[in-house]
């Protein structure tokens, strides 16, 4: 084997991946050639040094502790494709609410208007950023979310809330201007492993609010409720902008919320209390 | 029929036991593959959850490490693709002319003259050099040089033929040499080392 041939095999030799015959030939050459042996030793030291540097990544115990909790709370299910934009606001809101984070209007939120990223990206980023925030806080985690058509959204809400008039509610008759609320779709998110419906309403042809239901059967419900009650209202930065009203349904104990800017005051309340 | 609580607990236990010895490596791999640690954690969480949800598709007795890494590799790749802002990252540099090639060789010889000293002064240079590789090259390089995978194990995890793995590995090492040599030149290490 010549020195030039040896250089060709050096990388695989360092990796102990040469077949026996070639490996023996390399061994033989290295024993006879001081230059190549010195080169090999230095390459090996460099490779080892690179490995040591890249292996020196400090472990993050908190990350695994949180992930253990997420896994323990998770249940096998189909993962829905992620593409429905308004759900992002609600899912981010849920994350914010259950992590005790208030979203600040006009902040640099990942889904704020004018963000150049695609809608899908905004959705993913919003969720990931909130999840990161929550991990840092050591709180619960929303694991997943996905699109849902209107019938499925309605069925889920009925399942959680019972056959109420929440889905057919109209704005208060005493509102100054008549407004028409329209259920245009929905999605699901998971809080503590519980599927949580998120509905998207439109008022006067504008995306005005996201309606979400947090079932009383949810694993972390007492803590979440206490937190929500202490907050009273949140300010929501992701579109639709505006305040978030949170109420507890008297008949079931479930938490019901509306995020967004109603066209007129009271629409959110009407939706909740009717 | 929905699985019972006992089934879910058993499933969780089985997955956790297989995952436990890989945790440190998976975490390190994700962090090394991405510039931002919190994004790496997000990607890793996604990957682990995805794997857990599809744990039923894992065949007991087969290589869990390769199976698990597939989820991490794909998730990290998708994250990097989706979030890539610096378009220059991962783009092959233009071919070196002869003069440049000689300079690079000279600089790399200076690096090799005392690898330990160079690496001590390199700071984040190594990590930057890895991150400047193309996605597939980063993956192959890290799995081999840092995680100690064999070529066959890399092939299984990346679902590439061994020959392709070897090509990517050779290219990634050549690029690492070039970048470390470039770093030696730009940082003044070459002058200080008297080469």
- Give the largest interface pair and sizes: A-B, 40 and 49 residues
Q: Which series of helices and strands of chain B comes N to C?
A: HHHHHHHHHHH
Low-confidence parts of chain B lasting 5 or more residues at pLDDT below 50? 85-96
Q: β content of chain B, as a range?
A: under 5%
Task: Indicate the radius of gyration of chain B in whole angstroms.
Answer: 20 Å
Rough outline of chain A: rod-shaped
Order of helices and strands of chain A: HHHHHHEHEEEHEEEH
Helix fraction of chain B, binned, reads over 70%
Number of strands of chain B: 0
How confident is the prediction overall: mean pLDDT of chain B? 80
Oligomer: heterodimer
Mean pLDDT metric of chain A? 56
Task: Point out poorly predicted stretches of chain A.
Answer: 76-147, 164-172, 190-194, 228-242, 264-274
**Globular, elongated, flat, extended or rod-shaped: what is the shape of chain B?**
elongated
Distance between the ends of chain A: 88 Å
Structural class of chain B: mainly alpha
Structural class of chain A comes to: alpha+beta
Q: Determine Rg of chain A (CA atoms, Å).
A: 28 Å
Helical stretch tally of chain B: 11
How much of the polypeptide of chain A forms β-strand, as a percent range?
15-25%
The side-by-side strand order for the widest beta sheet of chain A comes to 1-2-3-4-7-6-5
Structure description:
The complex is a heterodimer of chains A (274) and B (195). With 274 residues, chain A is of the alpha+beta class. Chain A is 45% helix and 20% strand. Chain A has 9 helices and 7 strands. Chain A has a 7-stranded antiparallel sheet with strand order 1-2-3-4-7-6-5, sandwiched between helices. In chain A, strand 5 and strand 6 (242-248) form a beta hairpin. In chain A, helix 5 packs parallel to helix 6 (119-137). Chain A is rod-shaped, with a radius of gyration of 28 Å. The relative contact order of chain B is 0.12. In chain B, 73% of the residues lie in helices and 0% in strands. With 195 residues, chain B is an all-alpha fold. Chain B is built from 11 helices and no strands. The A-B interface holds A 11-12, 15, 17, 39, 42-43, 45-47, 49-51, 53-55, 57, 59-60, 63-64, 67-68, 70-72, 74-77, 79, 121, 124-125, 128, 131-132, 135, 143-144 and B 3, 8, 11-12, 15-16, 23-24, 27-28, 31-32, 38-39, 41-42, 44-45, 48-50, 52-53, 55-56, 82-83, 111-113, 115-116, 118-119, 122, 126-127, 130, 142, 144-146, 150-151, 166, 169-170, 173, 176.
């Amino acid at each position: 084997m010549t020195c030039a041939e040896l250089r060709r095999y050096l990388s695989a030799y360092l990796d102990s991946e040469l077949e026996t015959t070639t490996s023996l030939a390399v061994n033989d050459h290295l024993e006879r050639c001081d230059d190549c042996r010195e080169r090999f030793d230095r390459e090996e030291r460099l490779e080892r040094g690179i490995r040591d540097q890249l292996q020196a990544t400090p472990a993050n115990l908190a990350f695994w502790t949180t992930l253990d909790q997420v896994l323990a709370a998770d249940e096998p299910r189909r993962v829905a494709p992620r593409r429905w934009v308004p759900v992002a606001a609600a899912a981010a809101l849920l994350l914010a609410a259950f992590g005790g984070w208030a979203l600040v209007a006009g902040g640099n939120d990942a889904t704020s208007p004018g963000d150049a990223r695609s809608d899908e990206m905004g959705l993913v980023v919003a969720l990931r950023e909130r999840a990161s925030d929550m991990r840092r806080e050591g709180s619960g985690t929303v694991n997943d979310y996905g699109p849902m058509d209107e019938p499925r959204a309605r069925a889920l809400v009925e399942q959680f809330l019972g056959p109420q008039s929440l889905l057919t509610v109209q704005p208060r008759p005493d509102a100054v201007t008549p407004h028409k609320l329209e259920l245009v779709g929905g999605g699901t998110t998971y809080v503590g492993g519980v599927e949580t419906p998120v509905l998207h309403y439109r008022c006067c042809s504008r995306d005005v609010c996201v309606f979400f239901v947090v079932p009383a059967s949810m694993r972390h419900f007492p803590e979440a409720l206490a937190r929500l009650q202490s907050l009273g209202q949140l300010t929501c930065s992701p579109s639709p902008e505006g305040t978030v009203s949170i109420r507890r349904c008297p008949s079931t104990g479930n938490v019901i919320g509306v995020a967004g800017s109603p066209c007129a005051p009271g629409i959110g309340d009407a939706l909740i209390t009717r | 029929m929905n699985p019972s609580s006992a089934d879910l607990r058993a499933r969780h236990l089985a997955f956790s036991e297989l995952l436990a010895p890989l945790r440190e490596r998976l975490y390190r791999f994700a962090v090394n593959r991405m510039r931002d640690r919190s994004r790496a954690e997000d990607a890793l969480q996604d990957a682990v959850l995805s794997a857990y949800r599809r744990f039923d598709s894992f065949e007991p007795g087969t290589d869990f490490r390769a199976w698990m890494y597939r989820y991490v590799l794909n998730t990290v790749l998708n994250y990097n693709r989706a979030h890539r802002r610096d378009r220059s990252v991962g783009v092959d540099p233009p071919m070196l002319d002869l003069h440049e090639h000689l300079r690079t060789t000279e600089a790399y010889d200076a690096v090799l003259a005392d690898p330990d000293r160079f690496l001590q002064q390199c700071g984040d240079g190594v990590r930057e050099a890895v991150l400047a590789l193309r996605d597939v090259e980063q993956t192959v390089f890290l799995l081999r040089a840092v995680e100690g995978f064999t070529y066959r194990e890399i092939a299984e995890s990346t679902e590439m033929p061994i020959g392709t793995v070897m090509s990517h590995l050779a290219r990634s090492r050549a690029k690492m040499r070039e970048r470390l040599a470039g770093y030696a030149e730009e940082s003044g290490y070459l002058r200080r080392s008297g080469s």
